Each structure stands twice: as C-alpha cells, then as structure tokens.
Amino acid sequence: MLGFDLKLEKIMIMYGLYILFHYMLPRLYINFCVPWSLTGLIMSPFLSQSPHCKALSWLFVNSIEMIRKMFLGIGMWVISKKLLDTSIETK
Predict the structure, then answer these.
(1) Coil, strand or helix: which one is 33?
(2) I need a labelling partner for 59 at 20 to 30 A (CA). Which of 17, 31, 37, 52 fits?
C-alpha cells in the first residue's frame, strides 16, 4: 500500500506542475511575444514565428491536453474505485 501512496503523491505533484505551467505560460507569451506598444503591434506577426514564441505556444497547447488527459484518468480511477468498492460490499 505504501508504494501506491508514493505513486499517487508523484501523480499529484505532476498534476500540480502542469497546472502551474498552464498558468504561467500565457503570461510569459504575452511578455515576450506580444509587447504592449505600437512597436509590439507591428512586430507581433514576426515575433509569433520566433522559436521562443513557438515553443511557449506549443507548451501551452500541450499543457491543456495533458491536464485534460490527467483529469479524465483521475475521473476514471475514482469511478472504478467506487464501482469496485460497491461491488465488493454487495457480495
């Protein structure tokens, strides 16, 4: 049972890190890729194609997908635990 607790702890830490990344990445993108000025407006099409802006965008999109997948995985785990617990209690 102790091994299971350590796995769950690692999963929760990973989930928390993805949420933190998901929170930070748009702010970094705005700071580095869409400066708030007339020059920033003119430069934004060029900056959006720069490697660091493409990387930030890719990371943000993938953080959305990873959070969705983890949410579904946690939901399926909770539902399966409930179903198994109720089937054991009825026997």
Answers:
(1) helix
(2) 37
Give the tens place of pLDDT for each residue, 32-91.
Answer: 998 888 988 899 889 989 999 999 999 999 999 988 998 898 888 888 878 877 766 665
pTM of the model: 0.71
Rounded to whole angstroms, the Cα distance separating 60 from 57 reads: 5
The boundaries of the domain holding residue 56 are 2-90
Burial class (CB in 10 A: 0-12, 13-18, 19+), 63: buried
User: 44-58 pLDDT, tens per residue?
Assistant: 889 989 999 999 999
What's the domain count of the chain? 1
C-alpha 57/C-alpha 9 separation (Å) is 29
